[in-house]
Input
Amino acid sequence: MKKELVLISALFFNAGAAMANGTVSWALWSGPNATFTQNSDTIDLTYTGQWNSIDTNASYFNTVPASFTSPEVTNTPGANGAIHMVGGTSEVNTLHFSQPVVDPVIAVYSVGRTSAPVTFNFLDDPTFVIASQGAGYWGGGTLTQSGNSVTGLEGNGLLQFTGSYTDISFTTPDSESFYGFTVGAMATVVPEPETYAMLLAGLGLMGFLTRRRKAS
Output
């Protein structure tokens, strides 16, 4: 029975591995607009909301690249740019994509100070997790998540969203001299026929083992 379970696990692992793609196409900013790609599609991105400038300093992301990468995300935003904010308003900030984007990622940097927290409050109940976090250009810090809110104390990190989105909206009610974010997405790989065959084989084997156990 143990050998059979190991075989099933291997089948599902290999099928999932065939769908993985860890290179993010990060938004290339030009004013409040940007472009990136997902699969063969060019996504036009329009940002509306509070912002001061576009900052293209790659050091914010590359000084400690581990804070902005994960097992699924292998590259930082680099010099593609980011929205530089100061927050402190009730204004709703919105990222609008020209077509649905699957599982987007958002990198945030210098969110808050060690003595002054700053919070991103995401609207409309998106599903996301903090995929990585750590030190940044201005030293160490932390990010914490509570429901749809992410709070930083000089926080730097990567937010991984799950699902399909044409808009991501949030508020930044806390004022601070300097923090920012950018967005991107990985390619979604269509499984090969062999991948479907492995998944079906695993499901079939699980069904067979279940029936055999009930019969015995």
Notes: Residues 119 and 151 are 4 Å apart (CA to CA). The longest strand covers residues 93-102.
